[in-house]
Amino acid sequence: MSYMNEIRIRSVMLCFAIPERIRFIAELDRDISEIMPYLNTVIDGVIYNQSGHSITMKKGDRMIGIQSRQIAAGKVIDLKDADDLIKWFKDLVNDTYEKKDTIAPNYERRKQMTALDVYKLLLRQTVKNVVNLPVLLLQLNLLLRKNVMKCVDLFSGSFNEKRDELIRILKLCDIFVKEVN
């Protein structure tokens, strides 16, 4: 028997951010508060609020808010996409519940990575090189969400460690990273 059997869409509205898309609110058939610390462990990049019994996350470009008995999502393409998202979440909850004895729960609230955090990571390299214009341009490109992977200096060899850390952080933030060779 599954831990969670059904998630039922209760409301569908137009998306505020992208008018061609939708947002929805759906009801879970049970309270999943007890499984949230385990979800916090198995899903990269979520923000878990233990006292509020909520999780905030992104899947692709979709924004998802989860409460103990509800899931809401924005930037959803259409109803089929909403159904796919619900199925993914239900399967994830059920799989996590089945494996919870082998998963260490994480009760910590992760801080959402901001552009300033990445800027600080890269700023150390800029300070070492006094004023390194290519690194400063990389920082500005990142802040403006340009394609960071096209920055030639990032692949020059002297930045390998910083590049690898930046790619790891971007992937954790669910920012698409297309590596170029």
Based on the model shown, name its key terms:
181 residues; alpha+beta; TATA-Binding Protein; 6-stranded antiparallel sheet; 20% strand
Structure, explained:
- With 181 residues, this protein is an alpha+beta fold.
- It folds into two domains: 7-102, 2-Layer Sandwich (TATA-Binding Protein), CATH 3.30.310; 115-172, no CATH class.
- The protein has helices at residues 36-42, 79-99, 115-128, 133-143, 160-172; strands at residues 7-14, 22-28, 47-49, 54-59, 62-67, 70-76.
- A six-stranded antiparallel beta sheet has the order 1-2-6-5-4-3, covered by helices on one side.
- The mean pLDDT is 80.
What's the CATH class label of the largest domain?
Alpha Beta
The largest sheet has its strands arranged as 1-2-6-5-4-3
Number of helices: 5
Main beta sheet: 6 strands, antiparallel
Distance between the termini: 48 Å
Residues in β-strands, percent: 15-25%
Order of helices and strands: EEHEEEEHHHH
Question: Roughly how many Å is the radius of gyration?
Answer: 19 Å
* CATH fold call of the largest domain: TATA-Binding Protein
How many domain units? 2
DSSP summary, beta strand count = 6
Structural class: alpha+beta
Q: Which parts are unreliable, with pLDDT below 50 for 5 consecutive residues or more?
A: none
Helix content: 25-40%
Shape verdict: globular
